[in-house]
Please model this.
Amino acid sequence: MVPDFLTIAEAAALIGKRELSPVELVESRLSRIERHDGKLNSFIRVLREPALAAARAAAAEIMAGNRRGPLHGIPIGLKDIYETKGVPTTGHSKILIDHVPQQDATSVRRLTDAGAIVLGKLATHEFALGGPSFDLPWPPARNPWDTSRFTGGSSSGTGAAVAAGLVLGGTGSDTGGSIRGPAALCGLAGLKPGYGRISRAGILPLAFSLDHAGPMAWTAEDCAIMLQAMAGHDPADPASADRPVPDYRAALSGDIKGLRVGLIRHFYEDDNPADEATRQGIAAAVKVFEDLGCSVRELRLSPLAEWAACGVLIMLTEAYAIHEATLRERFSDYGELFRDRMVLAALISGGDYVQAVRRRRELAAEFATAMADLDLALTAATPSEAPAIDAVGKFATFERPMLTMPFNVTGTPAMSVCCGYSAAGLPLAFQLVGKPFDEATVLRAAHAYEKATTWRSVRPRLDG
Amino acid sequence: MSRAEVETALARAGLEVPERERRDIAAAAHFIDEMGERVRKTRTMAAEPAHIFPPPKE
Model:
């Protein structure tokens, strides 16, 4: 009997000892999808037969002594903006409902080369921006902790599927917080690596200069395992960084003594005030880091609204450039949330776009200076537990400045880490932010925090 | 941004937006104004944007 919930690391250990077969594992996840996804809507498309065939091939390779590594035989899901050869990649939109790519995205190929088994394509907000929407070809994903609640977005299906144990890990993308938001609201670990660390080739773009691809899983260790496979230079992506990729899992020493952490308190106390439960969760997390030997001091940056304005103006303008012609021709084929958010971009002047990009340089320099004598920054990931799914307004993104956007503006690695549960039993989270390309320190600190707390032992009840 | 300015921008963009959605968009246009104000700082003429074109490689 395969447990309902397994981390990638746990499953990999069992597979390595030949106590668990990839076939059993994949069959168990397909069974869970059949049993639970009717309520969660996390999958757009389940690739049952290809997944079973891949599992049988993985089992044969492993039995023959050719195990590729910790992802070999591990079932994952792909946000449906990651292109897959011969399998429709829709962006959760009627616009691309018949789009069948000729090749896999680079990151998909790297994951499958490492032995991961793709169970299917996961729900997303339309083109990673417009959601949660009820007027698209597929319904929005729902939060496994309470299906009346929002998953966060835009990597909504990945958040739901991993939290529910339908897959052990999944891919997300993050232009203003689309990995960290759903990771926070669904209780996962979600890593937005540094800009350029993971190739975006073959991933439907939202905004070229802010888009990041990244892993979402139950633990920091699982994110490290996925990042190891996904990271690396790719000439097919002009923003890809040609830098060495460290051994992320080896960095998870558990020892974080001496790390210097800057607490960006004003982001969640003054600029976008978080609820009391979130503040308490962060305060308790700070105490854990101090007990583990870190020094924590206040870090003050420009007001959050400055970062959000810079990021949102760039995001909307670049996205509009991608969709402008199609919006003219097929306006009503987009969902209302996506198209009306996009129409706002038609009101942005070319001058203001360039001013936003000039502002980005200033803000990135400010962050680099502020971090000169720090190893990490810590702040809230979201201001509260997951709201009701039907309470998310059309322009909610603009009403309160996003806590996640600053680190899309800087392009530095940032990770959502679960720090407990609200009175309603819903996940709470904080963000850990690193220096450029220093995902290893972010993962090391997140891993140490997870090991020092009990939050990773709590899973949603799906049958209640 | 006035409703008339929004209508002019939508016409220039060539977008056929239903009336109900036009009202929503006009009501949200102030977000764009406010964000624009925030990025329009006094800076030197030489202040470069973040994404200058990289020099071509040989």
Remarks:
- The mean pLDDT of chain A is 97.
